[in-house]
Protein backbone atom coordinates (compact mmCIF):
# COMPACT_ATOMS: atom_id res chain seq x y z
CA UNK A 1 0.00 0.00 0.00
CA UNK A 2 1.32 3.44 -0.90
CA UNK A 3 2.17 5.83 1.96
CA UNK A 4 -0.41 8.63 2.10
CA UNK A 5 0.94 11.87 3.55
CA UNK A 6 -1.09 13.29 6.43
CA UNK A 7 -0.57 16.10 8.89
CA UNK A 8 -0.89 13.50 11.67
CA UNK A 9 2.28 11.83 10.37
CA UNK A 10 4.21 15.13 10.54
CA UNK A 11 3.00 15.79 14.08
CA UNK A 12 3.95 12.27 15.15
CA UNK A 13 7.45 12.74 13.70
CA UNK A 14 7.77 15.97 15.69
CA UNK A 15 6.65 14.27 18.90
CA UNK A 16 9.30 11.58 18.40
CA UNK A 17 12.08 13.98 17.41
CA UNK A 18 14.96 13.69 19.94
CA UNK A 19 16.03 17.26 19.06
CA UNK A 20 12.56 18.80 19.46
CA UNK A 21 13.58 20.75 22.58
CA UNK A 22 15.98 22.99 20.62
CA UNK A 23 13.23 24.85 18.74
CA UNK A 24 12.25 26.70 21.91
CA UNK A 25 15.80 28.04 22.21
CA UNK A 26 15.25 30.17 19.07
CA UNK A 27 13.24 33.30 18.31
CA UNK A 28 10.94 32.39 15.42
CA UNK A 29 9.44 35.26 13.40
CA UNK A 30 5.66 35.28 13.58
CA UNK A 31 3.18 35.00 10.76
CA UNK A 32 1.95 38.61 11.24
CA UNK A 33 5.40 40.10 10.57
CA UNK A 34 6.27 37.86 7.65
CA UNK A 35 2.93 37.80 5.84
CA UNK A 36 2.44 41.54 5.53
CA UNK A 37 0.06 41.05 2.61
CA UNK A 38 -1.64 37.98 4.09
CA UNK A 39 -4.95 37.02 2.54
CA UNK A 40 -7.59 36.27 5.16
CA UNK A 41 -8.52 32.96 3.52
CA UNK A 42 -5.38 31.36 4.95
CA UNK A 43 -6.89 31.77 8.34
CA UNK A 44 -3.64 31.67 10.29
CA UNK A 45 -3.30 33.01 13.80
CA UNK A 46 -1.22 36.21 13.27
CA UNK A 47 0.88 35.41 16.33
CA UNK A 48 1.69 31.87 15.17
CA UNK A 49 5.24 31.13 14.00
CA UNK A 50 6.06 31.57 10.31
CA UNK A 51 7.61 28.69 8.39
CA UNK A 52 11.24 29.84 8.40
CA UNK A 53 13.10 27.94 5.66
CA UNK A 54 15.86 30.43 5.08
CA UNK A 55 18.43 29.43 7.69
CA UNK A 56 20.72 28.88 4.68
CA UNK A 57 20.78 32.67 4.36
CA UNK A 58 20.40 34.02 7.89
CA UNK A 59 19.93 31.61 10.77
CA UNK A 60 17.54 32.48 13.59
CA UNK A 61 18.56 34.20 16.79
CA UNK A 62 18.95 32.01 19.85
CA UNK A 63 17.06 33.58 22.77
CA UNK A 64 20.21 33.43 24.91
CA UNK A 65 22.09 35.71 22.50
CA UNK A 66 20.51 38.89 23.83
CA UNK A 67 21.67 38.22 27.40
CA UNK A 68 25.14 37.24 26.17
CA UNK A 69 25.58 40.55 24.31
CA UNK A 70 24.12 42.48 27.25
CA UNK A 71 26.58 40.73 29.55
CA UNK A 72 29.47 42.13 27.51
CA UNK A 73 27.92 45.61 27.56
CA UNK A 74 27.41 45.36 31.32
CA UNK A 75 31.00 44.23 31.79
CA UNK A 76 32.25 47.07 29.62
CA UNK A 77 30.21 49.54 31.68
CA UNK A 78 31.42 48.03 34.94
CA UNK A 79 35.06 47.30 34.20
CA UNK A 80 36.20 49.44 31.31
CA UNK A 81 39.57 48.17 30.16
CA UNK A 82 39.78 45.78 33.12
CA UNK A 83 37.09 43.72 31.36
CA UNK A 84 39.91 42.14 29.37
CA UNK A 85 40.68 40.13 32.51
CA UNK A 86 37.68 40.55 34.83
CA UNK A 87 34.63 40.30 32.56
CA UNK A 88 32.52 37.19 33.12
CA UNK A 89 34.02 35.89 29.87
CA UNK A 90 37.38 37.73 29.91
CA UNK A 91 37.98 39.52 26.61
CA UNK A 92 41.69 38.91 26.26
CA UNK A 93 41.31 35.15 25.72
CA UNK A 94 37.72 35.44 24.41
CA UNK A 95 38.44 33.63 21.13
CA UNK A 96 39.98 30.74 23.12
CA UNK A 97 36.58 29.99 24.65
CA UNK A 98 35.17 29.37 21.17
CA UNK A 99 37.92 27.17 19.85
CA UNK A 100 36.88 23.72 21.07
CA UNK A 101 33.26 23.99 19.94
CA UNK A 102 34.23 25.62 16.66
CA UNK A 103 36.62 22.76 15.92
CA UNK A 104 33.97 20.17 16.74
CA UNK A 105 31.42 21.69 14.35
CA UNK A 106 33.79 21.34 11.37
CA UNK A 107 35.59 18.14 12.45
CA UNK A 108 38.94 19.81 13.08
CA UNK A 109 41.54 19.81 15.84
CA UNK A 110 41.27 22.85 18.10
CA UNK A 111 44.46 24.50 16.96
CA UNK A 112 43.40 24.16 13.31
CA UNK A 113 40.54 26.68 13.64
CA UNK A 114 40.13 30.35 14.41
CA UNK A 115 37.09 32.66 14.53
CA UNK A 116 37.87 35.94 12.78
CA UNK A 117 36.75 38.51 10.20
CA UNK A 118 34.21 37.73 7.48
CA UNK A 119 34.21 34.95 4.95
CA UNK A 120 35.58 36.70 1.85
CA UNK A 121 38.26 38.39 3.97
CA UNK A 122 39.33 35.00 5.29
CA UNK A 123 39.42 33.48 1.80
CA UNK A 124 41.75 36.26 0.71
CA UNK A 125 43.99 35.96 3.78
CA UNK A 126 44.26 32.22 3.23
CA UNK A 127 44.96 32.61 -0.48
CA UNK A 128 47.82 34.95 0.39
CA UNK A 129 49.44 31.89 1.94
CA UNK A 130 48.10 29.10 -0.22
CA UNK A 131 47.79 30.49 -3.72
CA UNK A 132 51.41 30.77 -4.91
CA UNK A 133 51.13 30.62 -8.69
CA UNK A 134 54.00 30.10 -11.08
CA UNK A 135 54.18 30.57 -14.84
CA UNK A 136 53.30 26.87 -15.32
CA UNK A 137 50.96 26.24 -12.40
CA UNK A 138 48.60 29.12 -11.85
CA UNK A 139 44.96 28.14 -12.26
CA UNK A 140 42.33 28.35 -9.52
CA UNK A 141 39.42 25.93 -9.94
CA UNK A 142 35.92 26.93 -8.83
CA UNK A 143 32.48 25.77 -9.89
CA UNK A 144 30.83 27.92 -12.54
CA UNK A 145 27.86 28.61 -10.25
CA UNK A 146 30.11 29.64 -7.34
CA UNK A 147 28.81 32.49 -5.18
CA UNK A 148 29.77 35.79 -6.86
CA UNK A 149 32.03 36.90 -4.01
CA UNK A 150 34.15 33.78 -4.57
CA UNK A 151 34.36 34.51 -8.29
CA UNK A 152 35.51 38.06 -7.58
CA UNK A 153 37.98 36.90 -4.95
CA UNK A 154 39.70 34.29 -7.11
CA UNK A 155 39.74 36.52 -10.19
CA UNK A 156 41.33 39.35 -8.22
CA UNK A 157 43.90 36.97 -6.76
CA UNK A 158 44.82 35.78 -10.25
CA UNK A 159 45.10 39.39 -11.43
CA UNK A 160 47.22 40.27 -8.40
CA UNK A 161 49.81 37.60 -9.26
CA UNK A 162 49.60 37.42 -13.06
CA UNK A 163 52.23 39.94 -14.12
CA UNK A 164 54.81 38.84 -11.52
CA UNK A 165 54.33 35.12 -12.14
CA UNK A 166 54.03 35.52 -15.91
CA UNK A 167 50.61 34.15 -16.80
CA UNK A 168 47.52 35.53 -18.47
CA UNK A 169 45.12 36.70 -15.72
CA UNK A 170 41.80 35.69 -17.35
CA UNK A 171 43.17 32.17 -17.83
CA UNK A 172 43.89 32.07 -14.09
CA UNK A 173 40.38 30.88 -13.17
CA UNK A 174 39.02 27.55 -14.37
CA UNK A 175 35.24 27.30 -13.95
CA UNK A 176 33.70 23.83 -13.85
CA UNK A 177 30.35 23.47 -15.63
CA UNK A 178 27.82 20.65 -15.40
CA UNK A 179 27.07 18.56 -18.47
CA UNK A 180 24.62 19.92 -20.98
CA UNK A 181 21.09 19.59 -19.58
CA UNK A 182 22.29 18.83 -16.02
CA UNK A 183 22.11 21.17 -13.01
CA UNK A 184 24.88 19.77 -10.82
CA UNK A 185 28.45 18.63 -11.29
CA UNK A 186 29.32 14.94 -11.34
CA UNK A 187 32.29 13.98 -9.18
CA UNK A 188 33.72 11.90 -12.03
CA UNK A 189 33.67 15.02 -14.25
CA UNK A 190 35.33 17.17 -11.57
CA UNK A 191 38.10 14.60 -11.17
CA UNK A 192 38.48 14.27 -14.91
CA UNK A 193 38.93 18.06 -15.27
CA UNK A 194 41.48 18.12 -12.45
CA UNK A 195 43.42 15.31 -14.06
CA UNK A 196 43.34 16.89 -17.51
CA UNK A 197 44.63 20.22 -16.19
CA UNK A 198 46.89 18.76 -13.52
CA UNK A 199 50.01 20.55 -14.68
CA UNK A 200 48.43 24.00 -14.71
CA UNK A 201 46.23 23.95 -11.57
CA UNK A 202 47.64 25.61 -8.45
CA UNK A 203 44.53 25.72 -6.25
CA UNK A 204 41.14 23.96 -6.09
CA UNK A 205 38.64 26.07 -4.18
CA UNK A 206 35.10 24.74 -4.51
CA UNK A 207 32.20 25.30 -2.12
CA UNK A 208 31.39 22.40 0.18
CA UNK A 209 27.70 22.92 -0.58
CA UNK A 210 26.84 25.02 -3.63
CA UNK A 211 24.68 27.99 -2.66
CA UNK A 212 22.41 27.76 -5.70
CA UNK A 213 21.80 24.07 -6.26
CA UNK A 214 22.36 22.81 -2.70
CA UNK A 215 24.76 20.16 -4.05
CA UNK A 216 27.18 18.78 -1.46
CA UNK A 217 30.48 17.98 -3.15
CA UNK A 218 32.40 14.85 -2.26
CA UNK A 219 34.93 16.65 -0.11
CA UNK A 220 37.13 13.65 0.86
CA UNK A 221 37.42 12.26 -2.68
CA UNK A 222 38.04 15.59 -4.39
CA UNK A 223 40.53 16.71 -1.74
CA UNK A 224 42.55 13.50 -1.92
CA UNK A 225 42.52 13.41 -5.73
CA UNK A 226 43.71 17.01 -6.06
CA UNK A 227 46.37 16.71 -3.38
CA UNK A 228 47.77 13.56 -5.01
CA UNK A 229 48.35 15.74 -8.08
CA UNK A 230 50.22 18.38 -6.11
CA UNK A 231 47.39 20.93 -5.96
CA UNK A 232 46.52 23.01 -2.94
CA UNK A 233 42.93 22.48 -1.76
CA UNK A 234 40.69 24.97 0.03
CA UNK A 235 36.93 24.80 0.66
CA UNK A 236 34.38 27.57 1.02
CA UNK A 237 32.09 26.07 3.64
CA UNK A 238 29.55 28.92 3.87
CA UNK A 239 26.68 26.51 3.19
CA UNK A 240 28.29 23.49 4.82
CA UNK A 241 29.34 24.62 8.32
CA UNK A 242 26.57 23.71 10.76
CA UNK A 243 24.72 21.91 7.94
CA UNK A 244 26.94 18.93 7.14
CA UNK A 245 28.94 16.75 9.52
CA UNK A 246 32.36 17.75 8.28
CA UNK A 247 35.70 16.00 8.97
CA UNK A 248 38.17 18.64 7.94
CA UNK A 249 41.16 17.24 9.75
CA UNK A 250 40.75 13.72 8.36
CA UNK A 251 39.81 14.87 4.87
CA UNK A 252 42.98 16.89 4.78
CA UNK A 253 42.36 20.07 2.75
CA UNK A 254 44.98 22.75 3.21
CA UNK A 255 42.49 25.38 4.31
CA UNK A 256 38.80 26.22 4.58
CA UNK A 257 36.69 29.21 5.53
CA UNK A 258 33.03 29.72 6.37
CA UNK A 259 30.59 32.34 7.59
CA UNK A 260 28.58 32.05 10.81
CA UNK A 261 25.37 33.88 9.93
CA UNK A 262 23.74 30.98 8.05
CA UNK A 263 23.45 27.58 9.72
CA UNK A 264 25.60 28.77 12.62
CA UNK A 265 22.95 31.29 13.74
CA UNK A 266 25.35 33.97 14.92
CA UNK A 267 23.65 37.02 13.46
CA UNK A 268 23.95 39.28 10.41
CA UNK A 269 27.56 39.71 9.30
CA UNK A 270 28.70 37.44 12.16
CA UNK A 271 32.35 36.64 12.82
CA UNK A 272 33.48 33.97 10.37
CA UNK A 273 35.73 30.93 10.75
CA UNK A 274 38.92 29.61 9.19
CA UNK A 275 40.71 26.26 9.17
CA UNK A 276 44.34 25.54 8.38
CA UNK A 277 45.41 21.92 8.39
CA UNK A 278 47.79 20.90 11.15
CA UNK A 279 50.54 19.94 8.69
CA UNK A 280 51.02 23.67 8.01
CA UNK A 281 51.15 24.71 11.65
CA UNK A 282 54.34 23.28 13.10
CA UNK A 283 56.64 25.49 11.10
CA UNK A 284 54.55 28.65 11.12
CA UNK A 285 57.25 30.90 9.71
CA UNK A 286 57.46 28.79 6.52
CA UNK A 287 54.32 30.13 4.83
CA UNK A 288 54.00 33.71 3.63
CA UNK A 289 51.08 35.51 5.26
CA UNK A 290 49.77 38.91 6.09
CA UNK A 291 50.42 39.53 9.76
CA UNK A 292 48.92 41.40 12.67
CA UNK A 293 49.55 41.33 16.41
CA UNK A 294 46.85 38.75 17.19
CA UNK A 295 48.66 36.23 15.01
CA UNK A 296 51.79 36.68 17.08
CA UNK A 297 52.71 34.10 19.70
CA UNK A 298 50.80 35.17 22.85
CA UNK A 299 53.94 34.45 24.87
CA UNK A 300 55.65 37.47 23.26
CA UNK A 301 52.68 39.52 22.06
CA UNK A 302 52.90 42.06 24.83
CA UNK A 303 56.65 42.44 24.60
CA UNK A 304 55.61 44.85 21.84
CA UNK A 305 58.66 44.09 19.69
CA UNK A 306 58.77 44.82 15.95
CA UNK A 307 59.41 41.22 14.86
CA UNK A 308 56.42 38.97 14.06
CA UNK A 309 56.60 35.53 15.69
CA UNK A 310 53.63 33.53 14.36
CA UNK A 311 51.88 31.24 16.83
CA UNK A 312 51.80 27.56 15.84
CA UNK A 313 48.04 27.45 15.24
CA UNK A 314 45.44 28.81 12.83
CA UNK A 315 45.53 31.93 15.03
CA UNK A 316 48.68 32.88 13.13
CA UNK A 317 46.33 34.13 10.37
CA UNK A 318 44.37 36.43 12.68
CA UNK A 319 45.26 40.09 12.58
CA UNK A 320 43.32 41.99 15.20
CA UNK A 321 42.05 41.56 18.74
CA UNK A 322 38.66 39.80 18.82
CA UNK A 323 35.45 41.87 18.39
CA UNK A 324 33.85 40.70 21.62
CA UNK A 325 30.36 42.15 21.04
CA UNK A 326 30.22 40.32 17.71
CA UNK A 327 31.68 37.13 19.12
CA UNK A 328 29.20 36.73 21.95
CA UNK A 329 26.46 35.42 19.58
CA UNK A 330 28.91 32.95 18.06
CA UNK A 331 29.87 31.70 21.54
CA UNK A 332 26.18 31.10 22.37
CA UNK A 333 25.45 29.42 19.07
CA UNK A 334 28.46 27.09 19.22
CA UNK A 335 27.30 26.08 22.71
CA UNK A 336 23.96 24.98 21.22
CA UNK A 337 25.73 22.95 18.52
CA UNK A 338 27.87 21.30 21.20
CA UNK A 339 24.71 20.22 23.03
CA UNK A 340 22.84 19.01 19.94
CA UNK A 341 25.81 17.36 18.14
CA UNK A 342 26.37 17.52 14.37
CA UNK A 343 25.74 13.79 13.93
CA UNK A 344 22.24 13.98 15.44
CA UNK A 345 21.50 17.19 13.54
CA UNK A 346 22.54 15.62 10.27
CA UNK A 347 20.35 12.58 10.95
CA UNK A 348 17.30 14.77 11.51
CA UNK A 349 18.23 16.94 8.54
CA UNK A 350 18.19 13.94 6.22
CA UNK A 351 14.70 13.04 7.42
CA UNK A 352 13.35 16.61 7.21
CA UNK A 353 14.69 17.29 3.73
CA UNK A 354 13.75 13.79 2.58
CA UNK A 355 10.21 14.42 3.80
CA UNK A 356 10.09 17.74 1.92
CA UNK A 357 11.27 16.07 -1.26
CA UNK A 358 8.71 13.30 -0.82
CA UNK A 359 5.82 15.75 -0.40
CA UNK A 360 6.94 17.79 -3.41
CA UNK A 361 6.66 14.76 -5.66
CA UNK A 362 2.99 15.72 -5.82
CA UNK A 363 3.73 19.36 -6.73
CA UNK A 364 2.94 19.65 -10.39
CA UNK A 365 5.65 21.22 -12.57
CA UNK A 366 8.24 21.70 -9.79
CA UNK A 367 11.75 20.56 -10.71
CA UNK A 368 14.25 19.86 -7.93
CA UNK A 369 17.77 21.04 -8.84
CA UNK A 370 19.37 19.54 -5.74
CA UNK A 371 20.69 15.96 -6.02
CA UNK A 372 18.19 13.30 -4.94
CA UNK A 373 20.90 11.34 -3.10
CA UNK A 374 20.86 12.50 0.58
CA UNK A 375 24.64 12.00 0.70
CA UNK A 376 25.00 14.74 -1.93
CA UNK A 377 22.99 17.45 -0.25
CA UNK A 378 22.40 19.15 3.09
CA UNK A 379 19.22 20.83 4.35
CA UNK A 380 18.47 22.85 1.24
CA UNK A 381 16.32 21.94 -1.75
CA UNK A 382 16.47 24.29 -4.74
CA UNK A 383 13.22 24.23 -6.67
CA UNK A 384 12.56 25.51 -10.17
CA UNK A 385 8.97 26.74 -10.31
CA UNK A 386 6.91 26.74 -13.50
CA UNK A 387 5.29 29.88 -14.96
CA UNK A 388 5.58 33.20 -13.13
CA UNK A 389 7.86 31.97 -10.34
CA UNK A 390 8.23 35.34 -8.64
CA UNK A 391 4.49 35.71 -8.30
CA UNK A 392 4.22 32.26 -6.75
CA UNK A 393 7.03 33.11 -4.38
CA UNK A 394 5.22 36.30 -3.29
CA UNK A 395 2.06 34.30 -2.78
CA UNK A 396 3.94 31.95 -0.46
CA UNK A 397 5.39 34.87 1.48
CA UNK A 398 1.89 36.20 1.98
CA UNK A 399 1.02 32.85 3.53
CA UNK A 400 3.79 33.11 6.13
CA UNK A 401 6.50 31.12 4.33
CA UNK A 402 10.05 32.47 4.48
CA UNK A 403 12.31 31.05 1.79
CA UNK A 404 14.31 32.86 -0.87
CA UNK A 405 14.11 33.55 -4.55
CA UNK A 406 16.94 33.50 -7.07
CA UNK A 407 16.33 34.90 -10.54
CA UNK A 408 14.82 33.81 -12.79
CA UNK A 409 12.76 31.00 -11.25
CA UNK A 410 14.50 29.23 -8.35
CA UNK A 411 13.31 29.14 -4.77
CA UNK A 412 15.62 27.77 -2.13
CA UNK A 413 14.04 26.12 0.89
CA UNK A 414 16.12 24.90 3.82
CA UNK A 415 14.43 23.07 6.70
CA UNK A 416 16.97 23.39 9.50
CA UNK A 417 17.06 20.59 12.08
CA UNK A 418 17.73 22.82 15.10
CA UNK A 419 14.49 24.75 14.85
CA UNK A 420 12.32 23.50 11.98
CA UNK A 421 9.69 20.80 12.35
CA UNK A 422 8.05 18.18 10.20
CA UNK A 423 4.87 20.25 10.57
CA UNK A 424 6.76 23.18 8.99
CA UNK A 425 7.58 20.95 6.03
CA UNK A 426 3.96 19.85 5.78
CA UNK A 427 2.74 23.48 5.80
CA UNK A 428 5.38 24.60 3.31
CA UNK A 429 4.41 21.89 0.87
CA UNK A 430 0.68 22.70 1.16
CA UNK A 431 1.23 26.42 0.59
CA UNK A 432 3.53 25.74 -2.37
CA UNK A 433 0.91 23.47 -3.92
CA UNK A 434 -1.75 26.19 -3.41
CA UNK A 435 0.54 28.75 -5.05
CA UNK A 436 1.06 26.41 -8.00
CA UNK A 437 -2.67 25.84 -8.37
CA UNK A 438 -3.50 29.54 -8.64
C1 LIG B 1 29.32 30.54 -0.75
C2 LIG B 1 29.50 31.95 -0.28
N1 LIG B 1 30.72 32.54 -0.41
C3 LIG B 1 30.91 33.81 0.01
C4 LIG B 1 29.90 34.55 0.58
C5 LIG B 1 30.18 35.96 1.01
O1 LIG B 1 30.25 36.05 2.38
P1 LIG B 1 30.76 37.38 3.17
O2 LIG B 1 29.86 38.50 2.77
O3 LIG B 1 30.55 37.02 4.61
O4 LIG B 1 32.16 37.60 2.82
C6 LIG B 1 28.64 33.97 0.75
C7 LIG B 1 27.53 34.74 1.36
O5 LIG B 1 26.41 34.33 1.45
C8 LIG B 1 28.43 32.64 0.30
O6 LIG B 1 27.24 32.04 0.41
Blueprint of the fold:
Elements: H1 7-15, H2 31-34, E1 51-52, H3 64-79, H4 83-86, H5 94-106, E2 113-115, H6 119-130, E3 139-143, H7 148-165, E4 173-176, H8 187-196, E5 201-207, H9 219-228, E6 232-236, H10 248-251, E7 255-258, E8 273-276, H11 298-301, H12 324-340, H13 342-360, E9 367-368, E10 381-384, H14 389-398, E11 401-402, E12 404-406, E13 410-413, H15 422-437
Parallel strand pairs: 1-11, 3-4, 3-5, 5-6, 6-7
Antiparallel strand pairs: 2-8, 7-8, 9-10, 10-13, 12-13
Helix pairs in contact: 1-15, 3-12, 5-12, 6-7, 8-9, 13-15, 14-15
This protein binds pyridoxal-5'-phosphate (PLP).
Pyridoxal-5'-phosphate is lined by residues 118-120, 147, 149-150, 207, 211, 236, 238-239, 259.
